[in-house]
Amino acid sequence: MHSSLATPVLIAFGMIANMAYAQDSRSDSPQVVFESYRTALERDDWNSLYSTLSPGYRDYMIFESVFAMGVGAPCDEANAIIEKYVDKAKFEKLNTAFTQQPTTEQCIATYSQAIENKKGMFLDCSKYFEQKGKKNPDANKPKFGPLVGLVINENVAFAKCSVTFTIVFYSRTVGDAKDVRHEQETTTDTPCYFIKSDEKWLFSTQTEWQKHNAKDADK
Q1: For residue range 31-64, what is the model confidence (pLDDT) as tens digits?
Q2: CA-to-CA distance for 170 and 153, rounded, in angstroms?
Q3: Do 158 and 209 contact (CB within 8 A), yes or no?
C-alpha cells in the first residue's frame, strides 16, 4: 500500500506568514502524533495508526482503500470486506442523488455515510494490504524523515517531512539470461496537516485543516 499521507497542494506562504513558529514538546502535540503515526506504520499497528487520524482523514483512508481494492482483477477477499461494511442500499441512494460527476470529496462523504463501522473497515482493509504486501517481494513501505518547520497556530498546525519511496523495476538486455532487478529511491517533501480536536492533536487532510484554520481566524 502506498503512503498513507495524502499529497495535497502546498499551503501558500501567505496563509502561514502570521503564525508563530514553535517546536511543541508536550506529551500531546503534532510532533508526538507524527512519531506515533510513523512508528505504527513501521510496525503494522493499524489500531494505533487509526487513533492518530482525524475523522476526515479516516474517511479519506477508507475511500482510498476501497478504490485500491477495486483496481485490477476481482478479489473475493477484497469484495468480502466491502460487502461486510458498506451498506449497498444506502450507498446507491446517496450515489444516485448526484446530478453530475461527483467530486472526490463527495465520493468520500458518500462512502462515509454508507459505512457504520468505520474503524472495523479500516482495520480489515489495512490487514488485507499488509498480507498482500508480504506476498510481494518487491513491496516496500515508504520511509518518513523527521518532521521539520512545525508551525502551530491555536488549533491547527503545519509542517513538512521527507518521504522516500523505493521503486523496484526489472530490465533485460541482449545476452542476459534473466531480468536484472533494480531499486531506485525517490524522495519528496510532503506537507503534513494537523488539527486539535477535543484537546487532542490528530493528523488531518488539507481540507479539514483549512476548515479549522478558518474557524480560528473568525474567533
Answers
A1: 999 999 999 999 999 999 999 999 999 999 999 9
A2: 47
A3: yes
**CB within 8 Å of 97: residues ≥ 6 apart:** none
Question: Which candidate, 207, 204, 216, 215, places its Cα nearest to that of 54?
Answer: 204
Q: What contacts 61, CB < 8 A, 6 or more positions away?
A: 4, 53, 122
pTM as predicted: 0.78
> Which among 145, 59, 72, 144 is positioned nearest to 107, based on CA atoms?
59
Per-residue confidence at 102, pLDDT binned at 50, 70, 90?
confident
Nearest-angstrom CA–CA distance, 28 and 201: 7
| Beta-bridge partners for 166 | 185
Is the distance from CB of 62 to CB of 112 less than 8 angstroms?
A: yes
Maximum Cα–Cα distance across the chain: 70
Half-sphere exposure in the Cβ direction for 62 (13 Å, CA): 31
Taking the C-alpha atoms of residue 34 and residue 144, their distance in angstroms, rounded to an integer, is 10
Q: What is the pLDDT of residues 9-19, one digit of tens each?
A: 222 222 322 33
C-alpha cell at 76: 473475493
